[in-house]
Amino acid sequence: MNRFFGHLSTITRHKIKVTLLCFRCGLYAQGIKHDLSKYSFVEFWAGVRYYQGNRSPIDREKEVKGYSMGWLHHKGRNKHHWEYWLDNSKNGIQPLEMPVHYVVEMFCDRVAASQIYMKDRYDDCSALNYYRNGRDHVLIHPNTDQLILHLLTYLSEHGLDAAIAHIRKDILKNR
Known about the structure:
Layout: H1 2-25, H2 28-33, H3 41-49, H4 57-65, H5 69-75, E1 86-89, E2 92-95, H6 100-118, H7 126-134, H8 142-158, H9 160-171
Antiparallel strand pairs: 1-2
């Protein structure tokens, strides 16, 4: 029962944080719809089963089973994940460029996840450090990689309020 309520609390706190960040960036519909699939049967129960409280249950499920059904379900329904934008072509799997508003949602998602899992250890460099740590293992379009890296670096150098102002003024200016 502790894992049930722990997981429910974690994903709900995360969703609220991302929603508020998306709202601050002007992405109202994306904020409302963000991660609703986490409440679906396949994602929610995998999250409960592998819940630890200090990191994503997806990571634990992958360690135990070698894959995560919850993650496969999640990444196929949420456009703010770079994995959603992979396509199989005659040249193999190719990364597609993400629309800017989904990269901004990815930024909000990474900031909120860092805040939730790192708690008091979070600072404005946390999301950038996490991204850099796994960057060699991703198949992401170069323009998408450049933009998310820019946003996370801007956050680390100027703080969250300035990063959101930059997103609104310079990144999403034509929306």
